[in-house]
Amino acid sequence: MNGRVITDRYELATVIGQGGMGQVWTAYDRRLDRRVAVKLLRPDHMAAATVAEDMRRRFVRECRVTAQVAHPGLVTVHDAGSDGDDLYLVMQYVEGADLSDHLAEHEPYPWQWAVAVAAQMCAVLAAVHAVPIVHRDLKPRNVMVKPDGTITVLDLGVASVLDTDTTRLTHTGSPIGSPAYMAPEQAMGGAVGPYTDLYALGVVLHELLSGNVPFAGSTALGVLHRHLYEPPQPIRRLRPDIPEALEALVLRLLAKDPQHRPSGAQEVYEALAPLLPARGGGPTGPMDPTRPFTRPLAPWPERASAPAAAVRVPPPPTVPPSVAADTGASAAGRPGVAAAVDEVKRLLGEGRITQAVDLLGAILPAAAAEHGEHSHVVRVLRKQYATTLMDDGQYRRALPELRRLAADRAAEAGPADPQTLQYRHDVALCLEQLGEAAEALAEYRAILPYHESARQQPGADPSRAFGIRHRIGHLLLTMGDHSGAYQQLQNLLYDTERTYGPYHPLAGELRRALTHQQQIRGR
pLDDT in tens for each of the 523 residues of the chain? Predict the structure, then answer.
């Protein structure tokens, strides 16, 4: 027993997991009288003070975004915050065994079980990639198999918190993640996306079918080198009983080039569906992961079946009654725009970003009807709406708003206008976060000449041009152009040192990235 109580509510009991990221404890929720799991992270033990503070802010944001994803295959987030020097994340306590232990207990793993596990993981990934969220550290230790056969994915968003930039390396020069399950673009420090999780899914599936990961080695660098350059061994050479279609799917998931992998988790699921066990057939036993497919409505032996929870469809966003009352809303229920904007500012000041997003989305049509679609008021609201969506991690919803803003501003002020370029930069960022690497690369390249031209002016700040060049380099890594990426980052390092000196943080980060790439490629 630990005896420590987090925020006078969560009483820690025993450690059930420990690693470089922190610890996971079983705990007792005093307020709701239930068992929970608590993950503790110590930013000050993993990063410098300035980075640790950024990590804390990102932790709150990622927890908020993660909590919005509702799926039975994801662990439920109950609470999050900080307690002293620790960041804490309170989650549902999941009974069962992690997939690594489950594999060890049932090796050789029936291929039907592997298909059933992978199909459930696809359902989870389809939900989180739609947000979009990239797991970045998908592996058997982060997947629980519950007694009823369903799986639960853990640690969603945690790797993203620790890696405060989607492409930034740690102080040791290594990318965040587990080398055995790391996609080539992630191994090289490139931009990650949904395609990165699909590669990890392929590694997990290969491991379930063969008993081993496809690429092993005595050192992390050796493993990453194999991910980058060695083809995986076709699984039927190890287990001839595996269907050819399943072998072909694993090889597609393990493609070095993200563009050669399946287009998304839904496509992988559809490829797995014909291979799923028929109801009443296939291997059975305790903790059978095929059970959700073979007997989806049957109660587990000696367990009472729980009634299905009613599905509640949330209503569309509405304006808070306080705003409507204070603004003299029309008969249609539309508030005055000015008061609604004040309410949005209040919500943002209190950190209630999701409510602010909903309110902005609700008042935009009213503002357009009152002031005109191209009025200054509507543009300001649309800009705030897009910015708030990005702050909330809702890149898919922000993208069309930003594209409209960019087009309107370019028509009015020209393509070189700073605000036009800012909107287009945000478009590229959204595309990158959505996993559209080729489109993001094209957008960054299109706006770079304007920023390079501005950088040449006396007294100009080159940080935006340098930042875009940095993104281009990492996207080139993702697209498999390793030589082009190396040259891009090498040139950026030269300009950074000439402008800021050799001890600037960006210069240090670039040197680590280039050294890391050389180490992997030069083995």
Answer: 567 999 999 999 999 877 656 788 999 999 999 999 998 887 665 555 556 677 777 777 777 777 778 888 988 889 988 888 888 989 889 888 999 999 999 989 999 999 999 999 999 999 888 888 889 889 999 999 998 889 999 887 665 554 444 444 554 555 667 899 999 999 999 989 999 999 999 999 999 999 999 999 989 999 999 999 999 999 999 999 999 999 999 999 999 999 999 999 999 999 999 999 876 655 666 677 887 877 654 444 443 333 333 333 334 344 444 444 333 334 334 446 778 778 888 888 887 887 888 888 888 888 888 888 888 888 888 999 999 898 888 899 999 999 999 999 999 999 999 999 999 999 999 999 998 999 999 999 999 999 999 888 888 889 999 999 999 999 999 999 999 999 999 999 999 999 999 999 999 999 999 999 998 887 5
What are the tokens at 220? Answer: 């992390």
Q: Do residues 482 and 521 lie in contact, with contact meaning Cβ atoms separated by under 8 Å?
A: yes
Contact 239, 211 (CB under 8 A): no
Q: Would you say 482 and 519 are in contact if contact means Cβ atoms under 8 Å apart?
A: no
Residue 137 annotated as catalytic: yes
Q: So what's the architecture of 97-294 in CATH?
A: Orthogonal Bundle (1.10)
Q: Provide the β-strand partners of residue 18.
A: 23
Burial of 165 from C-beta contacts in 10 A (0-12 / 13-18 / 19+) = middle
- Where helices occur in 243-320 by DSSP H, the ranges are 244-253, 265-272, 291-294
Quickly list DSSP for 97-150.
Answer: EEHHHHHHHSPSPPHHHHHHHHHHHHHHHHHHHTTT---S---GGGEEE-TTS-
Q: What is the pTM for the complete model shown?
A: 0.81
Alpha helices (H) along 131-243: 158-162, 184-187, 194-210, 220-229
Give me the catalytic one of 79, 86, 98, 137: 137
SS3 443: helix
Cβ contact 59:41 at 8 Å:
yes
Show me where the domains of the chain are located.
Answer: 5-92, 97-294
Give the angle subtended at the CA of 313 by the CAs of 311 and 318, to the nearest 5°: 155
Q: How far apart are CA 93 and CA 90, in angstroms?
A: 9
Same fold across 5-92 and 97-294: no
Give residue for tokens 């969560």.
10
Q: Is 383 annotated as a binding residue?
A: no
CA triple 126-129-134, angle to 5 deg: 130
Class assignment of domain 5-92? alpha beta
User: Which one, of 156, 165, 164, 153, lies nearest residue 133 by Cα?
Assistant: 156
